[in-house]
TrEMBL record:
Originating organism: Asparagus officinalis
Name of the protein described by the UniProt record: Germin-like protein
Signal peptide: 1-21
Location in the cell: Secreted, Extracellular space, Apoplast
Disulfide bonds: 31-46
Pfam name, any one: Cupin_1
Residue intervals of the Cupin type-1 domain: 60-213
Cellular component aspect of the GO annotation: apoplast
Record keywords: Apoplast, Disulfide bond, Manganese, Metal-binding, Secreted, Signal
Keyword Metal-binding: yes
Length: 220
């Protein structure tokens, strides 16, 4: 009996923690971000509703035919459309992103969103996508997606996408936060500011000084 009560309390506590992991519910019809306000709150201060206009709820050309520049080391380019650049999203708990991938292996490298689930739709091309779940099993879920296919990366999981095609690829992601945040694993671990000590990384990755030094050198 006592154990059932404890189990019940634990489940309730976990449910509450989960609820707090998502963006708060709106308290009004809309709260268009006043991104110039000096007031610091959770999100952005609302612009005076009397001055809100249709353009505040509009973001032009996200999926236009203009390719974003993927001429970088990983071969991808993320155009994030969160509340900071699309003020109408403030307090609404959603955002989106366009992702362009270079041909022959353009990669959106392993990363996670600390505040969002992501659902990705392939607009053009062929993508290898996957995510890795929690310890201890660290199960890996993966799929090859074609144009029109959809895949979901659950809240907080480490995930990636790679272009398997000979032509550029484009995807559209929807995220369950107005400000999902991104932590790119390699950049965070080997390129933090200031650096994590080599002793920590050597032991964590079970490698020697030179391997850690080489990895760190990739992130200026
Ligand atoms: C992404 O593409 C835009 C537009 O082509 C470009 O201005 C920007 O520098 C690119 N970002 C990266 C990281 O390559």
């Amino acid at each position: 009996m006592a154990s059932q009560v404890i189990l019940g309390i634990t489940i309730l506590a976990l449910a509450l923690v989960q609820a707090f992991a998502y963006d708060p519910s709106p308290l009004q019809d809309f709260c268009v971000a006043d991104t110039k306000s000096k007031v610091i709150v959770n999100g952005f201060v609302c612009k005076d509703p009397k001055t809100v206009c249709s353009d505040d709820f509009f973001f032009p050309g996200l999926l236009n035919d203009v390719r974003r520049n993927t001429n970088n080391r990983v071969g991808s380019n993320v155009t994030q459309v969160a509340a900071d650049v699309f003020p109408g999203l403030n307090t609404l708990g959603i955002s989106l992103a366009r992702i362009d991938y270079a041909p022959y292996g353009g990669l959106n490298p392993p990363h996670k969103h600390p505040r969002a689930t992501e659902v990705l739709t392939v607009i053009e091309g062929t993508l290898h996508v996957g995510f890795i779940a929690s310890n201890p099993a660290n199960r890996f879920f993966q799929k090859v997606l074609q144009k029109g296919d959809v895949f979901v990366f659950p809240f907080g999981m480490i995930h990636f996408q790679m272009n398997l095609g000979k032509t550029p690829a484009v995807a559209l992601s929807a995220l369950s936060s107005q400000n999902p945040g991104v932590i790119t694993i390699a950049n965070a671990v080997f390129g933090s500011n200031p650096r994590v000590s080599k002793e920590v990384l050597k032991r964590a990755f079970q490698v020697g000084d030179n391997v850690v030094a080489q990895l760190m050198a990739q992130f200026k």
